[in-house]
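Narrative summary of target 7.
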Amino acid sequence: MNFKVKALDDKEFSALFSWDDAALEKIGAVRMTVDECPGFPCRVSLEDAAIGDEVILLPYPHHKTNSPYQATGPIFVRKIAKTALFEVNQIPPMFHHRLLSLRGYDKNGMMKEASVTEGINLEEQILKTFENDEIQYIHIHNARPGCYNCVVERV
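Modeled conformation, tokenized:
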């Protein structure tokens, strides 16, 4: 069984960095400068932002589905980020040092499984979750703050 991790598209966010703080505030977003690493995981590059990087923290509709599980939550995006592309079965190193929550959804956006794992065990947990044939995709969240990271799809 194979899978692919998919980051968010940088084109969706690049214009935000030209907005002033008042415009960002209108959409519930905040411009920040990274002051600790790790701590500001970028959802476009799927890398931890470096100290001094400019990021925007914004609400993002990460589960656009017509089910009770539709969801929006906070994400960080780095100014310099480009969309990360991963090979089949490749796990971004950013996940190795995090406690992660996996949520497996069926074709109708209904959650069918949920689990928590240390990042070093992520590949094993993804494969275990996909053993359930009903599950079409998995959302990975940071378990402690609960923030969305990315989607994992079957390949």
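The beta strands are 3-6, 30-33, 54-63, 71-78, 99-105, 111-118, 137-142, 148-154.
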